[in-house]
Write a structure and sequence with these properties.
This protein is mainly beta. It is built from 1 helix and 13 strands, in the order αβββββββββββββ.
């Protein structure tokens, strides 16, 4: 049995993972908001920036959807009222300081937010709890990413669920309200080499 397990692990590690055809779910968080992007549709992609605001006085707000040009996102940074999305050749800046009138430009501006490795809350997310800044305090609002995988015929299914929650800001405090940002199942195919005779 141990030999079978070792052979199975070796086969899985030697097989290439599914290619990341799209990067849906890149996100960043600023003071009082979280922003994430999706690019959906096979024949006519619809690229959208989703912005969810939250505060201690008003809780979790509605999701604002801002249409973007069709480009592959390579990373995001959130500043005070400005979101920078990295495309292949140019950064896209989205000014969300006035929620009713977001503006998108391709001007070269440098945000104070440091460049960090891209974070994802979609199919490529990693499990974790991220404390978010609301009114200068952390701990009351959190991004909770849960990921579970299981083997199936032909590969591995990865289940990912991402929620924005508001909780009691004390250890073991209960969840007061939540908003689902993403739920999905992704099949990572595993090609097993054909047996040789």
């Amino acid at each position: 049995m141990a030999k079978f397990t070792l052979v199975t692990i070796a086969v899985l590690l030697s097989c290439p993972a599914a290619a990341r055809a799209d990067s849906d779910g890149y996100y960043c968080a600023g003071r009082g908001y979280v922003a994430y992007e999706t690019r959906l549709g096979a024949s006519e992609p619809h690229h959208v920036l989703h912005v969810v605001r939250f505060s201690r006085s008003s809780g979790i707000g509605q999701t604002q959807e801002i249409a973007l040009a069709d480009f592959q996102t390579h990373g995001m940074r959130c500043g005070d009222g400005v979101i920078e999305l990295d495309a292949f050749t140019v950064p896209y800046l989205v000014d969300v300081s006035v929620p009713e009138r977001p503006r998108t430009t391709t001007e070269n501006a440098v945000l104070d937010a440091p460049r960090t490795p891209p974070m994802n809350l979609g199919n490529w997310a990693r499990s974790g709890v991220i404390d978010l800044d609301a009114d200068g305090q952390k701990g009351e609002f959190q991004l909770v990413i849960s990921r579970v995988s299981r083997p199936v015929a032909g590969g591995i299914e990865h289940y990912t669920v991402t929620d924005l929650i508001r909780r009691e800001p004390r250890p073991g405090g209960r969840i007061l309200t939540s908003k689902r940002l993403f739920a999905g199942i992704f099949l990572e195919t595993v090609d097993v080499p054909a047996a040789r005779f």
